[in-house]
From TrEMBL:
It comes from the Eukaryota. Residues 12-156 form the Glycosyltransferase N-terminal domain. One of its GO terms (molecular function) is quercetin 7-O-glucosyltransferase activity. Gene3D superfamilies: Glycogen Phosphorylase B. Keywords: Glycosyltransferase, Transferase. The gene is LOC110758104. It comes from Prunus avium (Cherry). Belongs to the UDP-glycosyltransferase family. This is UDP-glycosyltransferase 74G1-like. CDD domains: GT1_Gtf-like (cd03784).
C-alpha cells in the first residue's frame, strides 16, 4: 500500500444506505490520495442504484470504476425474494465468494490487478477470498467502536446471552452498561436471530485481516479504541462525511452521491428556506428502522399538538402506518416526505432539533451540524 499510485483497492459494500454512505465516502478519499478504487456491489443493486442528481450511471457519476458480483438472486431483486434472511445470507456467501474470486481473476489480466479488498463488516467471507487469492484484506466497520466491541465480547463468549436483566454489564473500554443499553440484537436476541448471528459471525476470521477500519475518530471513543487495538490492527478513519461538511479540503465533495431512495431535495429545501432559524424539528429514523403503528400514531399525535414546524421522513414502505389524513391536517406547519438529503437538511439554519433513531451515520452527521 506504500506505492499508492499503483495500488488498486476493491471496496465491497452491502446495499444498505447506512453502509453505502461511509464506504463510498472512504473510497473518494482513497481516490483523492492517488489510489485506484473500484466499487463492488451486487448485480441486483446495480440495477436499482441512482445518483443523488437523478437517474444516471453510477460509474460515470463518481468517476470511480464499478464492478458487480452475484448474490445468487440477480433477477429476483436481491434479499427481497428468498424464503428467509438466513437463506439469503447463505446463498450470498456461496455465490458471492465464487463471483468475487472470478472478478479478481478478471482484473488480474486487465493491467490493473487488485492489491486489496476493503469489505463491508457483514461480508466476512470476502476476507477468505482475499487470503485465498493472495491479496490484502481490510474490514470496514460502519458502526461505532463501542458497538463493535460489544459484539466481539459476545463472539468470545465473555458476554453471555440472554443477558441477566438485573445485572450491570462491565466490559473493557466501556462505561458500566445496563442490558437495555446494548444493541437490540443482543438485548432481545430472540427477536432478531439472523441479524444477531450475522453481527457475531463477522469476528470469526477477523484475526486474519491486514487492517480493521472503523468509521469513528479517536477522540470520540478513546478508551474503547485503546482496548480494541490490542487485538486487531485497528485504524479510525472517520467521520466519513463529505468534505464540504467537515474539513472543506475538496470543494467538489458535497454529497455522498448515491441513494437507493429518491430524495425530495428541492421540495425539502424550498420548504425550509421559508422557515425561521432554529424553528424546525427534523424527524428521520434512517433507511431500515421501522416503527410500529402505535408508535407512529403517538409520534404523529405529538407533532400535531406541538407548536413547532416539523419535517418528517416517512419511507414509502412505512407510509401506511401514518394516522389517516395526517399529512393534510398538518400541512400548515409540517412536511412529510419519503426521503430527503439529510446532510443538507441538518446543515440548514432553520433546523433546530433532530429526532433520530441514533444510527451511527446520523449521529456523526449531527456532530457535523454542530
Amino acid at each position: 500500500m506504500d506505492k499508492r499510485e499503483k495500488a488498486h483497492c476493491l471496496v465491497l459494500f452491502y446495499p444498505i444506505q447506512g453502509h453505502i454512505n461511509p464506504m463510498l465516502q472512504f473510497s473518494k478519499r482513497l481516490q483523492h490520495k492517488g489510489l485506484k478504487v473500484t466499487l463492488v456491489t451486487t448485480h441486483s443493486v446495480h440495477k436499482a442504484m441512482h445518483g443523488g442528481a437523478g437517474e444516471q450511471s453510477p460509474s460515470s457519476f463518481f468517476s470511480i470504476a464499478l464492478e458487480t458480483i452475484s448474490d445468487g438472486f440477480d433477477e429476483e431483486g436481491g434479499s427481497a425474494k428468498p424464503e428467509s434472511i438466513q437463506a439469503y445470507w447463505d446463498r450470498f456467501r456461496e455465490i458471492g465468494s465464487q463471483t468475487l474470486a472470478e472478478l479478481i481473476d478478471k482484473l488480474s489480466v486487465s493491467g490493473h490487478p487488485a492489491d486489496c479488498i476493503v469489505y463491508d463488516q457483514i461480508l466476512p467471507w470476502a476476507l477468505d477470498v482475499a487470503k485465498r487469492v493472495g491479496i490484502a484484506g481490510a474490514a470496514f466497520f460502519t458502526v461505532s467502536c463501542a458497538v463493535t466491541n460489544i459484539y466481539s465480547f459476545v463472539h468470545k463468549g465473555r458476554l453471555k446471552l440472554p443477558l441477566n436483566p438485573d445485572s450491570e454489564i462491565l466490559l473493557p473500554g466501556l462505561p458500566p452498561l445496563q442490558p437495555s443499553d446494548t444493541p437490540s440484537f443482543i438485548y432481545v436476541p430472540e427477536s432478531y436471530p439472523a441479524f444477531l448471528k450475522l453481527s457475531v459471525d463477522l469476528f470469526s476470521n477477523l484475526d486474519k485481516a491486514d487492517w480493521v477500519f472503523c468509521n469513528t475518530f479517536y477522540e470520540l471513543e478513546q478508551e474503547v479504541v485503546d482496548c480494541m487495538i490490542k487485538f486487531w490492527p485497528l485504524r479510525t478513519i472517520g467521520p466519513t462525511i463529505p468534505s464540504m461538511y467537515m474539513d472543506k479540503r475538496y470543494e467538489d465533495n458535497k454529497e455522498y452521491g448515491l441513494s437507493l431512495l429518491k430524495p425530495n431535495s428541492d421540495g425539502c429545501l424550498k420548504w425550509l428556506n421559508a422557515k425561521p432559524t432554529g424553528s424546525v424539528a427534523y424527524i428521520s429514523f434512517g433507511s431500515v428502522a421501522g416503527l410500529g403503528e402505535e408508535q407512529m400514531e403517538e409520534l404523529g399525535l405529538g407533532l400535531r399538538r406541538s407548536k413547532s414546524y416539523f419535517l418528517w421522513v416517512v419511507r414509502a414502505s412505512e407510509s401506511a402506518k401514518l394516522p389517516k389524513g395526517f399529512a393534510e391536517e398538518t400541512s400548515e406547519k409540517g412536511l412529510v416526505v419519503s426521503w430527503c438529503p439529510q446532510l443538507e437538511i441538518l446543515a440548514h439554519e432553520a433546523v433546530g432539533c433532530f429526532v433520530t433513531h441514533c444510527g451511527w451515520n446520523s449521529t456523526l452527521e449531527a456532530f457535523a451540524k454542530t
